[in-house]
Design a protein that fits this description.
Number of helices: 6
Radius of gyration: 34 Å
Structural class: mainly alpha
Strand content: under 5%
Strand order of the largest sheet: 1-2
Distance between the termini: 43 Å
Helix content: 55-70%
């Protein structure tokens, strides 16, 4: 059975607030003790409450004095470097949550536009997209084309290296003499095999799209876009 999430707010009921204090005070002291023991650090805790006439300290009054004295010896800037109160802690948590939300929105948008891109390749029209969607789609297509071109360049270099290596091995097998026609044929064959792959991933040079749905322009002229091209940066 999962635990019920506690609402972070002041407990107005006196008996419930007192019970919560005792329970959480015990847990806090235990956590401080565990942190000090497991990590070998100096730590202390001081708790004031309306339910006790004297403050409760951990590990002992002398232990608290040692930790506080060590803290006071530090420069003031070092003391305040990681000091937080309730307000600053909540601000940090809100800022962290906003960053996570921003990242999630970006990831969701990228997945959405990627889905639209693949659907358009199957023939689905783009009439329902607005200018913001079209700009983002254009940016996504440009990024994928860049990756494809990088891969093509890499494969071209690999094919040239393989052709050169194959020619060198053929020369060695034939005692250093290879007919020029044979060497040219093997080199050309390797280049043609590589060109077949280039044509496969770059079909726009071989064929065109006749439908009006695939001829929509993509640009950066939309200054009021909620998600401009920089959305994915």
């Amino acid at each position: 059975m999962t635990r019920k999430k506690v609402k972070l707010a002041y407990i107005t009921n006196d008996s419930a607030r007192k019970a919560a204090f005792k329970k959480r005070k015990k847990g806090l002291m235990k956590k401080v003790s565990e942190l000090s023991t497991l990590c070998g650090i100096d730590a202390c805790a001081i708790l004031y409450s309306p339910y006790d006439s004297q403050p409760e300290v951990w590990p002992s009054p002398s232990g608290v004095q040692l930790v506080v004295a060590h803290f006071k010896k530090m420069p003031e800037m070092e003391q305040r470097k990681k000091m937080v109160n309730q307000e600053s802690f909540l601000r940090q948590m809100v800022a962290k949550g906003n960053e996570q939300l921003k990242k999630q929105v970006k990831d969701n948008r990228e997945k959405e536009i990627t889905l639209v891109m693949f659907q358009s390749l199957t023939g689905k029209g783009l009439q329902t997209l607005n200018i913001i969607d079209l700009n983002d789609l254009g940016w996504m297509i440009d990024q994928n084309l860049k990756e494809i071109n990088k891969r093509i360049e890499s494969l071209n270099k690999e094919a040239q290296s393989l052709a050169t290596a194959a020619a060198g091995q053929l020369i060695i097998k034939n005692g250093g003499k290879v007919p020029e026609e044979k060497l040219a044929f093997d080199t050309m064959d390797a280049i043609q095999r590589q060109q077949w792959f280039v044509d496969l991933v770059n079909p726009n040079e071989q064929m065109g799209f006749a439908g009006d749905d695939m001829m929509l322009p993509f640009g950066d002229a939309n200054q009021n876009a909620i998600w401009p091209n920089g959305f994915f940066h």
